[in-house]
């Protein structure tokens, strides 16, 4: 994997770049649609590529391990051949999903014991087998196994958890390095910065992660309930420490405004389920503000959803028609809304990239943030 910075904003830490993988180039900053179980919900691969213009999508180790299972994925020849997406893929290690199973998980130094949310069966994730699982899945970018702490989280627990994440990272690196080339995929491991919302822990974790000199680095444990300003402060602190010549990935973030503020602080990569989850409930992100398409005001609005951002779904279908579909619980409504919201997110990061290259990102970002605060 190669990463090259192609432009910087003079009034913020925003930067534009190009990330090269075996499955294609990724312009940054980039938003990555979440395809947890090998699919971005309600969206065809053709729509991802042609309409949304996604450059990379996510899969999830925990979910793919349970279903369809490693035997199926290995026999298919990896996730790219299984789901037909030939562009880059990133897999989360499953640490966040295990975190969400707080009632059934048991965390030990060796790893995490948990029960499947599907059938209650018992499983055990270690730093080593999570690397093996991601090797089998075959994503271009794989994540280190970590513990995602909740918010709020007391200092002593955050510190203890951070050090365990660092110890797990060393085991992840050892396993990845000794299995290099074993599965026939070129894969890059990203370590994850933890430390909750404590500045000294975040600083210590960022320094530790940077010292391993992997191909890229991630920032985890944020967007878990803390105030947005606190998230921005932690992001800025960490980005000042992580190496400038490596891509930075802020995990699970977030709203369009969160993404703009993350870009301003030097983040290159983002993911979040928000665009598709909100879409299924009729909440649309547009270039003029946020729309609740269920509101009666859209009942006779026969204008396109958002002609500014391009894409078939956003420019062909009207607000009135989409409102009708959502109100009658037609599956097509969720599909159109999902494609539209993802089109908006990719449009937003592309616009950010253009304005970084043009040298006026910061002023554009502030104007766009005002529009995004509008509830139409």
TrEMBL record:
Q: What is this protein called?
A: Queuine tRNA-ribosyltransferase
Instruction: List each copy of the tRNA-guanine(15) transglycosylase-like domain by range.
Output: 13-371
Which terms does the record give in the GO molecular function aspect?
A: tRNA-guanosine(34) queuine transglycosylase activity
Q: Where is this region: RNA binding?
A: 252-258, 276-280
Pathway, per record:
tRNA modification; tRNA-queuosine biosynthesis
State the reactions this protein catalyses: 7-aminomethyl-7-carbaguanine + guanosine(34) in tRNA = 7-aminomethyl-7-carbaguanosine(34) in tRNA + guanine
Question: Which residues are responsible for catalysis?
Answer: 92 (proton acceptor), 271 (nucleophile)
Q: SUPFAM superfamilies, alphabetically?
A: tRNA-guanine transglycosylase
Sum up the protein's function in the record's words: Catalyzes the base-exchange of a guanine (G) residue with the queuine precursor 7-aminomethyl-7-deazaguanine (PreQ1) at position 34 (anticodon wobble position) in tRNAs with GU(N) anticodons (tRNA-Asp, -Asn, -His and -Tyr). Catalysis occurs through a double-displacement mechanism. The nucleophile active site attacks the C1' of nucleotide 34 to detach the guanine base from the RNA, forming a covalent enzyme-RNA intermediate. The proton acceptor active site deprotonates the incoming PreQ1, allowing a nucleophilic attack on the C1' of the ribose to form the product.
Question: Where substrate is bound, by residue?
Answer: 92-96, 146, 194, 221
EC number(s) stated in the UniProt entry for this protein: 2.4.2.29
Instruction: Report the Pfam families cross-referenced here.
Output: TGT
């Amino acid at each position: 994997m190669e990463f090259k910075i192609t432009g910087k904003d003079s009034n913020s830490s925003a930067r534009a770049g190009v990330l090269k993988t075996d499955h294609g180039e990724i312009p940054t900053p980039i938003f990555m649609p979440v395809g947890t179980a090998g699919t971005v919900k309600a969206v065809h691969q053709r729509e991802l590529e042609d309409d949304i213009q996604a450059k990379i999508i996510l899969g999830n180790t925990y979910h793919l391990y349970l279903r369809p299972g490693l035997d199926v994925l290995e026999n298919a020849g990896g996730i790219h051949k299984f789901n037909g997406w030939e562009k880059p893929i990133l897999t989360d290690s499953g640490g966040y999903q295990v975190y969400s199973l707080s009632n059934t998980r048991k965390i030990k130094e060796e790893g995490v014991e948990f029960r499947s949310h599907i059938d209650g069966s018992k499983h055990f994730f270690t730093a080593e087998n999570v690397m093996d699982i991601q090797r089998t899945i075959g994503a271009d970018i794989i994540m280190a196994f970590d513990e995602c702490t909740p918010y709020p989280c007391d200092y002593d627990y955050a510190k203890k958890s951070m050090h365990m994440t660092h110890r797990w990272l060393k085991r992840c690196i050892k396993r990845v390095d000794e299995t290099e080339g074993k599965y026939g995929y070129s894969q890059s491991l990203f370590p994850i910065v933890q430390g909750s919302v404590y500045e000294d822990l975040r600083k210590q974790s960022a320094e530790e992660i940077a010292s391993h000199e992997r191909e890229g680095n991630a920032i985890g444990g944020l967007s878990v309930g803390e105030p947005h300003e606190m998230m921005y402060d932690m992001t800025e602190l960490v980005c000042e420490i992580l190496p400038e010549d490596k891509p930075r990935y802020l995990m699970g973030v977030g709203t369009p405004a969160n993404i703009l503020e993350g870009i301003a602080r030097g983040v290159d990569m983002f993911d979040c389920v928000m665009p598709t989850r909100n879409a299924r409930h009729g909440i649309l992100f547009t270039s003029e503000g946020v729309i609740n398409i269920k509101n009666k005001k859209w009942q006779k609005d026969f204008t396109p959803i958002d002609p500014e951002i391009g894409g078939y779904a956003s420019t062909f279908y009207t607000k009135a028609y989409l409102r009708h579909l959502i109100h009658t619980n037609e599956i097509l409504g969720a599909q159109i809304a999902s494609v539209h919201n993802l089109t908006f997110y990719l449009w937003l990061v592309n616009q950010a990239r253009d304005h970084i290259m043009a040298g006026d990102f910061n002023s554009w970002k502030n104007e766009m943030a005002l529009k995004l605060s509008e509830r139409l």
